[in-house]
Each structure stands twice: as structure tokens, then as C-alpha cells.
Amino acid sequence: MHELSIANSILEAACAEAQARAGMRLTKISVRIGELAGVDPDALSFSFEALVKETDLEKCALEIEFMPRRHECGSCGQRFVVADFETRCPKCGTAETTFISGNELEFAHLEMEEI
Amino acid sequence: MNQIPMAGKILKENDRIAAELRTAFHVHNILCLNLVSSPGAGKTSLLERTLESFAPNERVALLTGDLQTDNDARRLARFGFPVKQITTGGTCHLDARMIEKALADWKLENLDLLLVENVGNLVCPSSYDLGEAAKIVVLSVAEGEDKPLKYPSMFFKSELLVLNKIDLLPYVPFDLAKAREYALRVHPGMEILEVSCQTGAGLPQWREWLNQRRERQLLSYAYAEHA
Fold first, then answer.
1. Contact between A36 and B92 using a beta-carbon 8 Å cutoff
2. With left for phi above 0 and alpha for psi between -120 and 50, is residue A84 left, alpha or beta?
């Protein structure tokens, strides 16, 4: 259960960004979490809500964009989502495919409103 | 409403320190390996057998993480190499800052190999880069062979899978072929070794892997300097 410390890192970085903009208040933090990031989105939402509860940020929402594992075929160049650990290319059947994304633990954007 | 793009990693502070550590390991030609597993898979036993096989002049050191106690450090200190316990006090993983702090009073120029034993946990340590060259995941045959499918993140991010306690195979329902198949499904091309820290089976192959991995790391350091 490291989602609490990750939620805390998200809040710290987003608040630092918001403080740099006078007269604005954070309403939403949007992040991308990859399938292979080792972070459970539900536990992250739960931790985030627990952290902002009864604080100035209580109205701030956390939006999690779940990023599936994606591979690229070394033979035909097809890019595809890996479902059920099937890493062979769905187009040409090649077994040699390369991981391209699905390990994200990153910010997407913030939403703010005027106070 | 204003939308403001915000780029960057969520764990950027950890990643920054990990990058500094990686640079320091490069400068001193150190191979750093991060051993991960669930609790009780045999990380400490594997390290004991590894240290036992080193000549006393080998330049190796260990960091070992646990929530509480210095039991592992005491087990590992018997071999005469520098060992430091990192007690996380409840945190379920090691992070880069803990490594940085633990290394602060060690002279890196005296080291060739740094082995880090992470907290026993197959989830959380996968998110934290410690500056290591590679993660090694240890899975014992006393566990389920479907662990790679249940915890794909850790198996995906580890370069080598060490299947430990193979001496127990006659007594447990563990399906070795399935375990290999599952690991390779999650991580195609993953290297896999089978060992028993009790009987010593597979340990020479593990030592050979370690030697070759170090050679490979030194080559990649040399290559990076010329690139």
C-alpha cells in the first residue's frame, strides 16, 4: 500500500504548481497510471480522498487515466494493446514485439478556477 | 475553468535521486542490483550463499531493507563484507533517498558490487527506482506458480527471475514449467534461473550470471563514455 505516499507526491507537486498562480484554486488533478506501474487506481483514489478530506482541497478531484500496456511490432510496425499478456502482433503474428507504453506514473494536466 | 498542462513524473523527486545514484555508480564502475520478492522467498538466503562464495578481498557491499529489526543485517554481516540495515519503520518499499542516506558514509571507490535487498513485497518496490542497473525477482516454489500473472509489474521490470527452493519441488504442487511460461508471458525474453539455497543446486549458474552481468555493466559504462 504505497498509494498513500504516491497520492501525497501528487498533491505536493500540484499544490506547488497552483501556488505559482495567484488567485487560482485547484479543481482537478489529472494523472496517467500505466497498467505496469504497480499502482492500484482504486487505492490511489481512496488515498487521495483521505488526504484532501476536510482541507482546502476537499473539492479538488483526482482524475486517473488508466494506460494499458502497448507494444509495437518489430516486423510490420503495428501498434497494439496487449490484452491477457498476448504480446504477439495481432496483424502479422510476429512474436518479436517491443513494449512502448503502459508504465506511466505521470501528470497529465491540472484544472483551476478563479477564487 | 482553466486547464493547465502539467508534465512530469509523479515520483520525480525519487527519480531525481535515483538518477544521481546511477551516475555515482557509473563514475565508480559499480554494479548495483535490487533484489525483490514476496516475504520469505529467500532473498536473504540467496545473498548469504552469494557472500559465502566470494573471496574476502571482493569489493562487495549490501543494503538490506525491512520494516523492523536488524536480523537480516546480522545474518549477512557474518561474512565480513560491509552490510547496512535500512529499517523503514512501516514503509513497504525502499526509495532512492533511503539508499542515498545509507551510502552517505561509505566510500564508493572501494566497491565493485552493491546488492540491495528490498522489503519483501511484490507490489510497491516496483514503483521506486533505486538507481540500480537491474532488478532481480526471487520466487520460491513454496508460492503459487501464477505469481507472475498476479504481480505483472514486478516481473515485467525485473531482468532475472530466480526460482528458489527447488529442493522442495517433490513436496509442493508448484508447476515449474507453468511458472516459466507465465513469467515469459508477462516479460518475453526474461532470464530465469532455478536454485536451491539449501542444496546449492543452481548456485554456480547464479554466480556465473552475476559475473557476466558485471562484465556487461562495465561494457555499457565504457560504451556510454565513448558515445
1. no
2. left
- Quick one: pLDDT at residue B1? 66
Hey, are the CB atoms on A36 and B156 less than 8 Å from each other?
A: yes
Are B3 and A37 within 8 A, CB to CB?
no
Give the bridge partners for B35, in sequence order: B117, B136
Say if the Cβ atoms of B8 and A106 lie within 8 Å: yes
Identify which of A1, A17, A24 has the shortest CB distance to residue B6: A17
First to last CA, chain B: 47
| Domains of chain A by start residue, with CATH | 3-68+102-114 (3.30.2320.50)
Q: Where does the pLDDT of residue A33 fall: very low under 50, low under 70, confident under 90, or very high at 90 and above?
A: very high
Q: Which fold has domain B16-226?
A: Rossmann fold (3.40.50)
Name the closest residue on chain A to residue B122, using Cα atoms. Answer: A38
Nearest to A108 by CA among B5, B33, B209, B224: B5
Distance from the A54 Cα atom to the nearest Cα atom in chain B, whole angstroms = 23
Question: The cell 552517505 sits on which residue?
Answer: B104
| 3-class SS letters over B202-220 | CHHHHHHHHHHHHHHHHHH
Strands (E), A21-104: 24-34, 61-67, 70-73, 79-81, 97-101
Query: What value does the mean pLDDT of chain B take?
Result: 96
Read off the amino acid at residue B68: Q
- The domain spans of chain B are 16-226
State whether B3 and A109 contact (CB < 8 Å). yes
Question: Average pLDDT in the B60-76 region?
Answer: 93
> B189 at the A interface (CB within 8 A)?
no
Does B5 reach chain A within 8 Å, measured CB to CB? yes
Which residue does chain A place closest to B6, by CA atoms?
A109
Q: What is the ipTM of this complex?
A: 0.85
**Cα angle value A28/B92/B169 (rounded, 5°):** 125
- The distance between the two most distant Cα atoms of chain A, rounded to a whole number of Å, is 55
